[in-house]
Amino acid sequence: MNVRFMISNFRFLLLAVVGMALASCDMFNKNTPSYQLSDLQGLWQENNTEHYVRFTTEQSDETGYLYGREWDEAEDVFEADLKPKGNGWFKYLFETSGSLTEIHLMDNGGAEIPKVYVVTKLNDTALEYYEKEQKSVKFYFTKMVEKQ
Q: What pLDDT, in 10s, does the model give residues 61-85?
């Protein structure tokens, strides 16, 4: 077999492999969604249940975290029942790339429990995300008009 032909084929194969590797890199992926914080803020209802989450515009501190609240009316817990910065409250940080970090605040000893989520859908009516550590734990919410 001709050595020149083999070298030419090897170069072509090497170029094809490098091209495929670059095309699969995230930094070249133009389909990475970008979300808006303003779409996240407001009242959300989980999957037609009585579990609600509110993402507010209240600053928690200088680190950029904002406050949020969650409650379950099926358990006779309402938003008005939540003690400020206690059980049911959380701090959150949202990145437009879809990373959502929640730090849940607990009354017992001031514990803070962090959770990291990946947002897969966010618009003015729908919010979907999953736990970063357990991709099988998924959440689906519908944006609500303010409750009376």
A: 878 899 999 999 999 999 999 998 8
